[in-house]
Amino acid sequence: MENWLQLKESHKSLSAAAASTYDDIYENSNHATGIYMRYEEDLIHASIDHIPEKKVAVVLGSGTGRDSFTLAGYFEKVFGLDFAPEMTAQAQINQKKRGLKNTVFMTLDVEQDPLPFADQSVDFINSSFGMGSFVLNPANFFLEIKRVLKPGGRVIFSFYNSQAFVNQLELGWAPAISSRLNHNEETLEVQFGGQNFQIPVVAYSVKEIKAELERFFGIHAISTFPSLSSIFPQQFFENERVRNLCLEADLLLADNIELAGGPFIVAVVGI
Ligand SMILES: C[S@@+](CC[C@H](N)C(=O)[O-])C[C@H]1O[C@@H](n2cnc3c(N)ncnc32)[C@H](O)[C@@H]1O
To answer: Total domain count for the chain?
Structure first.
């Protein structure tokens, strides 16, 4: 636990360093990371169709506000929570640029602090881009999310997959993905803007996280992404046809949870 708290400081340093350039760099510098971000966004749009009311949405680990702004098109109010004040400040700048009035960004550690919402008051929660793996004790985290979620509401979780193909291979090249588990599976190596950061992470197999989630929620869908595109180097994707063929294969493989080759596990759950 002590080690977790120390390493968590390095995650805060990464967020502080990344806040102002995050939007330009993340999606564009590594092909597999970019297609994963779009995969999650498609899942958000698809999941919202199933929610009975669209009053309040919450983003846990909201960063620069990317997914909060997507949700702002659907919900009356969107709250974005992030433990890095630099991320909150950047999200507020981005909100002003977009002229949005229904997003609120707050600095809060969602692993440590209670969520600032009443019981059964939130329609939708997004905890994506690996956020589920940035929490040491998932049971406490899930319980708090369950407390604030309305019946019929949905949550999208994303976790790092210990069984991903890219995490099981010894590669002689840098794959086109910005974050990769280290061999001890307890830290994540993140490349950002030419710098390397080691941040604490709890990686799961699909089987492990499915069993943990089922203690608290009903699972609507679970997938891993992107199995194939996360293995090859960035130059591999310079050819558009190669990019499209790999994407097609990755979309076909996403729901195959026996194979479960993608570096991210994405679960859509509800109560
Ligand atoms: C990979 S970024 C994702 C940001 C955004 N959701 C997106 O998809 O662009 C993860 C974010 O979670 C935040 N974060 C990590 N652990 C957190 C915690 N315990 N409480 C609040 N925020 C956290 C980080 O500061 C970072 O901004």
So the answer is: 1
- 224-263: pLDDT as tens digits: 999 999 999 999 999 999 999 999 999 999 999 999 999 9
Sequence-ordered list of residues with C-beta below 8 angstroms from that of 226, at least 6 positions apart, any chain? 32, 35, 36, 39, 246, 247, 250, 254, 262, 263
Q: Please give the helix or strand (H or E) that residue 16 lies within, else none.
A: helix 2-18
Write out the residue range of the structural domain in which residue 152 sits: 2-270
**Which residue's C-alpha comes closest to atom 20 of ligand 1?**
109
For ligand 1, atom 23, the nearest C-alpha belongs to 61
Consecutive H or E run containing 221: strand 218-225
Report how far residue 268's alpha carbon sits from residue 173's, in angstroms, rounded to the nearest whole number.
33
**Residue 71, domain CATH:** 3.40.50.150
